């Protein structure tokens, strides 16, 4: 892919792409563009495509100007222990441990394409095997309920560099403003902040400062939450590796857990998280976190690299 386009610095701080001569043979890759609550990824079926460099291809295909465009790329691969294996890559080529919106789309793809036509699918991820219950209309999956497993609240397991071994709530100062954060791992790290209407926040400005905050050794996903009532949260998210996205499934789960820890919502009751791209319903109990939401196919195509 980098045979065709090369990023060039022109000194103005803006990257430009220049076309370079194509010398080698091209590979045709089939793909499907899908989204869950407008968190959109390019999905590549590795049962059919032989991919060599996952991270590099993810950066190339995610670009909204010179690629297909998306919040990243998700590879659907064969698994020895489950119906399929998900490998998710952010816009910057970093690999995520888990992706809540992505796994619903993977389950839809696995069912709709016939890889495994089962109502309950097992999908292997970097944070373990997740169980996905698909809801089917007219032969196609429309929504999926995922058993996301247990939330991790111990600092070392999130991970966050906070003192002690039980605290998940801390006060941190970002760009001269103090925030109380509740940190939760849903297989990947999240930092949840409760406050005013998230639409009023300058997320482009503050998001990167949370992502790279010194106390988050593996960077972090940050959720800004307004509690609308004790069953409803409004959320905006800054994802590590991808920036602002329209929704984050693991982030919605982390936020619902954090809302219960802070007394805004109750365990065992459905919590609707309203994201810019749609709603997710989260159910948090002592057994774990269940997430239900949509999975949609946008288009399919072939890309030559
Ligand atoms: N959008 C995702 C999360 C994707 C991974 C995240 N950016 C990370 O690196 O942890 C979701 O729906 O959960």
TrEMBL record:
Residues reported to bind substrate: 39, 90, 100-101, 188, 221, 239-240, 249-250
Name the InterPro entries for this protein: DAP_epimerase_AS (IPR018510), DAP_epimerase_DapF (IPR001653)
Q: Does the keyword Amino-acid biosynthesis apply?
A: yes
GO cellular component terms, A-Z: cytosol
Q: Does the keyword Magnesium apply?
A: no
**Biological or metabolic pathway of the protein:** Amino-acid biosynthesis; L-lysine biosynthesis via DAP pathway; DL-2,6-diaminopimelate from LL-2,6-diaminopimelate: step 1/1
Q: Where is the active site?
A: 99 (proton donor), 99, 248 (proton acceptor)
A GO molecular function term, named singly, is: diaminopimelate epimerase activity
Encoded by which gene? dapF
Supply the SUPFAM superfamilies for this chain: Diaminopimelate epimerase-like (SSF54506)
Q: What is the protein named?
A: Diaminopimelate epimerase
Q: Where is this site: Could be important to modulate the pK values of the two catalytic cysteine residues?
A: 190, 239
Keywords recorded for this protein, A-Z:
Amino-acid biosynthesis, Cytoplasm, Isomerase, Lysine biosynthesis
Q: Which GO terms describe its biological process?
A: lysine biosynthetic process via diaminopimelate
Q: Which organism is it from?
A: Hominenteromicrobium mulieris
EC numbers listed for it are: 5.1.1.7
């Amino acid at each position: 892919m980098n045979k065709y386009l090369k990023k060039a610095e022109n000194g103005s701080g803006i990257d430009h792409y220049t076309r370079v001569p194509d010398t080698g043979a091209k590979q045709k890759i089939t793909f499907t563009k899908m989204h869950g609550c407008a968190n959109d990824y390019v999905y590549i079926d590795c049962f059919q495509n032989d991919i060599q460099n996952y991270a590099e291809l993810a950066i190339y295909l995610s670009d909204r100007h010179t690629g297909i465009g998306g919040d990243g790329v998700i590879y659907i691969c064969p698994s020895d222990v489950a119906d399929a294996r998900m490998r998710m890559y952010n816009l910057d080529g970093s690999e995520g441990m888990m992706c809540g919106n992505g796994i619903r789309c993977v389950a839809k793809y696995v069912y709709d394409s016939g890889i495994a036509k089962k109502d309950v699918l097992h999908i292997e991820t970097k944070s373990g095997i997740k169980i996905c219950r698909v809801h089917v209309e007219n032969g196609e999956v429309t929504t999926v309920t995922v058993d996301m497993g247990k939330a991790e609240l111990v600092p070392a397991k999130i991970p966050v560099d906070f003192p002690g071994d039980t605290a998940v709530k801390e006060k941190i100062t970002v760009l001269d403003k103090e925030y109380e954060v509740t940190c939760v791992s849903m297989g990947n790290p999240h930092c949840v902040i409760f406050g005013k209407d998230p639409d009023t926040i300058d997320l482009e400005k503050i998001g990167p400062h949370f992502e790279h905050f010194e106390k988050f050794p593996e960077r972090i996903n940050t959720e800004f939450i307004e509690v609308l009532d004790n069953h409803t949260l409004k959320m905006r998210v800054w994802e590590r590796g991808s920036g602002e996205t329209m929704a984050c499934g693991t982030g919605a789960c982390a936020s619902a857990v954090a809302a219960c820890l802070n007394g805004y919502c109750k365990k065992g009751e459905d919590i609707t998280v309203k994201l810019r791209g749609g709603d997710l319903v989260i159910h948090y109990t002592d057994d774990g976190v269940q997430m239900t939401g949509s999975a949609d196919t946008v288009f399919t195509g072939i890309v030559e690299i």
